[in-house]
Amino acid sequence: MSDLSIQLPVQSQRRPDLDWLRVACILLLHLYHSARMFNVDDPWSVKAPVLLPLLNGPMDVLHMVRMPLLMLIAGLATALALRTRTVGAFAVDRLKRLLWPLIFGMLVIVPPQIWVERVWKGQYTGSYLAFWPSVLRGVPYPKGSLSWHHLWFVAYLFVFCMTALPLFAWFRSDRGKAFLARTEAFLAGGANLWWLAVPIMGGRFLLRNHPETNDLLHDPKNLVFYGGLFLAGHLLGRLPKLDQRLVALRRWNLGLALVLVPASLLADKLPVPLAYLCYYAAIWASLCAALGYGRALVKRSSPGLHHAQSLAYPFYIFHQTVIIVMGWWMLRFNLPAWTFFGLLTGASFLGTWALCEGVARIEWLRPCLGMGPRKPRSSRAARPSPARITEGQLAAILSDEAR
Fold first, then answer.
1. DSSP3 helix / strand / coil % (the chain, rounded to 5)
2. What is the tally of structural domains in the chain?
3. Does residue 122 fall inside a structural domain?
4. Is residue 254 part of a domain?
5. Using CA atoms, how far apart are residues 122 and 141, in angstroms rounded to an integer?
6. Could you tell me if residue 138 is inside a domain?
7. Residue 396, phi then psi, degrees to nearest 5
8. Could you tell me how far CA 273 lies from the centroid of its own chain?
9. How far is CA 245 from the centre of its chain?
10. Fewer CB in a 10 Å sphere around the end CB: N or C, the chain?
11. Domain range for 278
12. Which pTM was predicted?
């Protein structure tokens, strides 16, 4: 056989369905945090003088799925990242993308939220510049001024990634590969994907009397819940046949979610075990439906989606501070409650977006917000060069795909 040179396009390592879901989660998170200034019975750094009880129900639904879906996607993304990286390179990348933005956020992004809260409550009357040195004293919030506030997710994700490194390395061993093969064969049958939810639900039920603190050290309830979602997401990313099951079961999971989510809002009227089963089954059904429909419907990326996902992480880091500062400033105008909510949501979105666009253009700031180096204009404009393989190599690839 002649050694013909055949050109094939380089496959992208990105999953456009996950990019789309991640961007959607961040937008819903922005909407949720904009509403927290107006809903009832929910403490917040600053509250509007007139509250909007109608927001409570929709916010309860958003609360069920927004952060669990983000953590599930984060776990799945680690599996995709490890396809092309060593475990050591992955650890270094997480230090850059998670730990450094967390430190920067605690020192720069979060403190304005604490200052606004204390000014609004009458606990502090000085300027922000006079307040900021208190952050450096290192006294944790609420006694002090050092906190990660909404960046708890970044802290937890970093801990999950680092503690799972030995597991990730074991998955590359012969025994680990055999375990993954058996797990894939089991979970890809019927509705067995639901077995991934059993330890998550069970842990949440057993730890139901523990408060949710988001402080990492005294938060076993969230550690088990989000740690379980992280590992479940990682397995979904490791085992490609599970993608097919998520797609095949997407209608079934959506139908179940549409029944269970409304029922879970009335869970306080059910016996405790049944209430927990209903609530967390609703969450798992919603997550599986979202992943299944995303995989089935979003096949290709686009320049708009690519740009949006590149700004999703800095948007998450910035958004809550922008909402709180802007909402506190807008209190002076005595706006009608629904007008206030609409203007705050829209203006804070545009303000956060503008900040992200600005940061993306400042090379030294990009790592502080978890962004990689900016590609030179010439490489961004150039078309990706195709990989060159021989005809023999192509035949081997096609043979493997056929199996």
1. 70, 0, 25
2. 1
3. no
4. yes
5. 17
6. no
7. -65, -40
8. 28
9. 22
10. C
11. 5-110+148-402
12. 0.89
